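Friendly challenge for the regulars: who can give me the C-alpha cells for this chain first? No prize, just bragging rights.
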Amino acid sequence: MPARATSVIHAVLVDDEKLASDELAYLLRDFPDIEIQAVGRNGLEAISLIEEYDPDVVFLDVQMPGMDGVSVVRQLRERLAALPYFVFVTAYDNYAVEAFRLEAIDYLLKPLDKDRLAESIERVRRHTAETQQEQEPQFQPQSGNDGARPALQRNKVLLKSGTRNFIVDAQDIVYATIDDGLITIVATNMEGQSNYRTIEELQSNLDPDLFWRVHRSYLVNINRIREVVPWFKSSYQLRMDDKKQTEIPVSRVQTKRLRMLLKL
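First reply, four minutes later:
Bragging rights claimed.
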C-alpha cells in the first residue's frame, strides 16, 4: 500500500449535477489528504470559489449552463489569477485536447472509476509536491559561501521582439512569465520572448538574491515590486514597476514567506 501524503491538498468541486458532485465527494473520502473546501454548481461559482479559497486543485465539470469549465480556466488566466491545478470531470471525451492545452492535470470520464480517480489524485500529489519544492528555496538571503549559486549568472539577457533581437540588462527585467511553453520577459522599456525553455532554466542563470519565483508561472525582480496588494482569502498580488503596473499573483507557499519577511 503506497504511503499517504502528509500535506493536505485543498480541493474545490464544481458540477451542475448535484448527484455527480456528491458521488465525487463520497469517493474522495477514501483519500484523507484531500480536503474539500467548497462545492460549486456552475462556472461563475467556480471562479468565485477559486478566488475565495485559493485551492490546490479543482475538480471541474466541462459542460455547465452559462459558463463551461474550459471558459472558467480561460477567464482565470486572463485575470492573471493564481491558478490551481484542474482535473476536468465530464461525460464527454471530445474536450480532452482543449483541456490539456489549458494545462489541465487530468481528464476523468463519468461514471467515475475509483482506480482511475486514485491515479489522478496521485498525479495531483506529485505536482503539488513538486511545486512546493520548486518554490520553497526562493527568496532566501544568502551570505558568504552558504548555498550554492548558479555556475554562470548572466548580466545580459536576449529578448526577441518581432524580427529583432535585443540585449537587456538583467537588472532591468521586471518580471518573466510562461504561458503555453512560451516565456515572456517584461523589462522596463520593452517586452518580448525568451529562448529559455522553462522558468527554472531562466532563473538558474539570474541572481538568486534578485529574482524571486513567486508563483509557478512567474519570476519577479524584487527591486521592481512597486506595491503589495491585498487579495482574496488573505493572499496578495504584487504590483510591478512596468508600464502597465502588472499585478502578479503570489502562490500559497510564497504568501506565507511574504508575510514573514514583510511582517504583513
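The domain at 9-135 is CATH 3.40.50.2300 (Rossmann fold). The chain has two domains: 9-135, 156-262. Your move, everyone else.
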